[in-house]
Every structure is written in structure tokens, then in C-alpha cells.
């Protein structure tokens, strides 16, 4: 069974590729590498001992996307590809709507052409806005930024698609704050420039790449005054995608699931956990609150537990430990050469040209 993974070279996508390959699936990856590196796919191959095809293709290019389906017998799609920086979406909303929404419509049109109607969609908890916690899937949706609204719009498109043709089987996954890395330290989160997310920022402070952490607000109604979020280990999140894939393959429906731990941790909780895991001191400064931040946000994960048989297994200590291992092993992210003995790198070929990720020789 061959699964197409769009955005498979990205942070969550690469970890999901590892889980798919380890479970015996065949995969094809599509990525335009605008916010990821082909090096991550080489390392997926090294971790799993498996080869697979990858295409340098943008979802806005329907002709090249069609070629991927024509050349492969794809049976289901896990769709990660999309722009994801909240601040950037505020500055460049049209770019986000074009890339995320139109890209997804293009994908669905090509899927329909080839009668591939099983889809797992990577959505986000940003669709909720300020909701009462723990947040259930039927909470009112109120995305507060263009990025979140693109996810909400895509969810509505997929609902309409299923209602027009019940053969479409779709799982919409809303996840909260993915952190951590593969336990090998070989793949992890590789942000471009200064990290937007908390744990990559903390890890770079611990490594001495950044001077200190800025904590935005310490007067929230929480135990230490800092914001509380639901952090989930990326490997647990990847496992949730496999359970969702099994769900869409076994029934024709459209379902939405929260993927999180169902627990909230404050910024200070995360700082202290990382200091314990790394043995490093994390200096931080308290700044004013950021507009739009909510005090507390964590998931009701009972639906995923009951219907998918999935729960998160890794706690914040493991999340911090694996993040620190990734940071130490890859101080410059994927910019460094692979661990393949001869240090060679697989070049990205031209659009719509497939290349196989090579196995490690050692």
C-alpha cells in the first residue's frame, strides 16, 4: 500500500514518514522544500533502512502533481504541506490563502481524478481561538489569524467534499504544540532563522546560540502567571496520523480529532523541565503580554482515545530530552552533512522528477 505524504520533508511529516515505513507502508513524498530540507528525507531512509521516492513539487503546480499520481499507485494521502508561521500569515495573508487553500483544492482535484479518496489532513488547534478548556472538537471555531483561518477554510472544503461524495473518507487532525524529536537525534525541528516556537527557542538558548528566552506575560491566571499550553511529542503525533490513516481506510466518513496530551504546561514548567534534561541554565526575561495570546489552551483528547485507540505516551521530560539530543547532534540543523560515511548529499532534482532516498552504507 502506497501512501502519498505531502510536506513529508518537514518536521511532523518526516517523523510520520518514519512511522509509516516502520509499519511496512510504501510511501511517496511530495515537498517543494521551501521550508524544509531533502536532508531530512535522507535521514528518514537511514533511520528506517528503507528507500522511497520523493518529488520536488509544489501543490500549486497541478501538472507536476498529476505526474506524481500517474507514476505511482497511490491509495491514500496524508496532507501536511502548507505555510505555517502565524506572524508571517498576518504580514502576507494572500500568500497563505493561495498556498494553503488553493494547494489543497488542487490536491483534492487530482485525487478525485485518480479515484484516491482516503485523506488525512493536518489541521491545527489555531482554529479554536479562545475556548474553554479542555477544548473538545465541537468547540466554536474562531481562528484569530490568517494561518488559522486557512486551516478552518480547508476543513470546510473537506466537509463539503465528503457531503457531495460520501466515498471520500477524511480524518481532520487538530493538534496542539508538537515538540521533541526522534530518539536517534537524527531528525528534528529545524526552524529557519530565529525560532517562532517555544522549545526550539529554549534549546538554542541552552546551546548558547541565543542569549535568553523572552517570556511574554507573567500575570495570566495560571499557577506561575505564564501561559499554559498542551505540548505533544512529535513521535506520538506521528503515531496518531497512522491511527487516523487506518480509520479512513476502514470506513467512509469524515471525522475530526484533537491530538494532544490533554494536559497543560506553563512556560516556566517547560523551562524547568528543559534545564533538568539538559543540565543547562535557561536565562529568561519577562516581557508584556502579546496581543492575541490566550492564558490556557489544552485539548480534550477523549475522542481520539475512544475512536482511534490512540493516546500520547511521552511526557515533557522525554520531549525535552529528545529535543536537546537533536540540538546537540545538529547545532546547525540540516545544514550539516549527513552521517553517510562519504558525506555525500542527494541533490534535489527538477520539478516532477523523482529521486530515491539512498540507504546508509554503514
Automatic annotation (TrEMBL):
CDD domains of this UniProt entry? UDP_G4E_1_SDR_e (cd05247)
> Which pathway, metabolic or otherwise, does it act in?
Carbohydrate metabolism; galactose metabolism
User: What is the main EC category here?
Assistant: isomerase
Q: Which Gene3D superfamilies match?
A: NAD(P)-binding Rossmann-like Domain (3.40.50.720), UDP-galactose 4-epimerase, domain 1 (3.90.25.10)
> What InterPro entries does UniProt report for this protein, alphabetically?
NAD(P)-bd_dom, NAD(P)-bd_dom_sf, UDP_G4E
Q: Which domain of life is it from?
A: Bacteria
Provide a Gene Ontology MF annotation, just one: UDP-glucose 4-epimerase activity
Ranges where the NAD(P)-binding domain occurs: 4-323
Cofactor (UniProt):
NAD(+)
The Enzyme Commission number assigned here is 5.1.3.2
Q: Which Pfam families match?
A: GDP_Man_Dehyd
Its keywords, alphabetically, are: Carbohydrate metabolism, Isomerase, NAD
Catalytic reactions of this protein: UDP-alpha-D-glucose = UDP-alpha-D-galactose
- How is the subunit organization of this protein annotated in UniProt? Homodimer.
Q: Which family does it belong to?
A: Belongs to the NAD(P)-dependent epimerase/dehydratase family.
Q: What is this protein called?
A: UDP-glucose 4-epimerase
Q: Which organism is it from?
A: Halobacillus amylolyticus
Gene this chain is encoded by: galE
Amino acid at each position: 500500500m502506497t501512501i502519498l505524504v505531502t510536506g513529508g520533508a518537514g518536521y511532523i511529516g518526516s517523523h510520520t514518514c518514519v512511522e509509516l515505513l516502520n509499519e511496512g507502508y510504501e510511501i511517496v513524498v511530495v515537498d517543494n522544500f521551501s521550508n524544509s530540507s531533502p536532508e531530512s528525507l535522507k535521514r528518514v531512509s537511514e533511520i528506517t533502512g528503507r528507500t522511497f521516492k520523493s518529488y520536488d513539487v509544489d501543490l500549486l503546480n497541478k501538472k507536476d502533481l498529476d505526474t506524481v499520481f500517474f507514476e505511482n499507485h497511490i491509495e491514500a494521502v496524508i496532507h501536511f504541506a502548507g505555510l505555517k508561521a502565524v506572524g508571517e500569515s498576518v504580514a502576507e495573508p494572500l500568500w497563505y490563502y493561495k498556498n494553503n487553500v488553493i494547494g489543497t483544492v488542487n490536491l483534492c482535484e487530482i485525487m478525485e481524478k485518480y479515484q484516491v479518496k482516503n485523506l488525512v489532513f493536518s489541521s491545527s488547534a489555531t482554529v479554536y481561538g479562545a475556548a474553554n478548556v479542555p477544548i473538545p472538537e465541537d468547540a466554536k471555531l474562531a481562528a484569530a489569524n490568517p494561518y488559522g483561518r486557512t486551516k478552518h477554510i480547508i476543513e470546510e472544503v473537506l466537509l463539503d467534499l465528503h457531503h457531495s461524495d460520501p466515498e471520500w473518507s477524511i480524518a481532520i487532525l487538530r493538534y496542539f504544540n508538537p515538540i521533541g524529536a526522534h530518539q536517534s537525534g537524527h531528525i528534528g525541528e529545524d526552524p529557519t532563522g530565529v525560532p517562532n516556537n517555544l522549545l526550539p527557542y529554549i534549546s538554542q538558548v541552552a546551546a548558547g546560540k541565543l542569549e535568553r528566552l523572552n517570556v511574554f506575560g507573567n500575570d495570566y491566571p495560571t499557577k506561575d502567571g505564564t501561559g499554559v499550553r498542551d505540548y505533544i511529542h512529535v513521535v506520538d503525533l506521528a503515531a496518531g496520523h497512522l491511527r487516523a490513516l487506518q480509520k479512513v481506510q476502514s470506513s467512509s466518513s469524515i471525522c475530526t480529532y484533537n491530538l494532544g496530551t490533554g494536559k497543560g504546561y506553563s512556560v516556566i514548567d517547560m523551562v524547568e523541565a528543559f534545564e533538568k534534561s539538559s543540565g543547562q541554565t535557561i536565562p529568561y526575561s519577562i516581557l508584556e503580554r502579546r496581543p492575541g495570546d490566550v492564558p490556557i489552551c489544552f485539548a480534550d483528547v477523549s475522542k481520539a482515545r475512544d475512536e482511534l485507540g490512540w493516546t500520547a505516551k511521552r511526557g515533557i521530560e522525554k520531549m525535552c530530552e529528545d529535543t536537546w539530543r537533536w540540538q546537540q547532534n545538529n547545532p546547525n540543523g540540516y545544514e550539516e552533512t549527513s552521517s553517510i560515511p562519504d558525506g555525500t548529499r542527494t541533490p534535489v532534482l527538477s520539478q516532477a522528477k523523482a529521486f530515491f532516498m539512498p540507504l546508509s552504507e554503514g
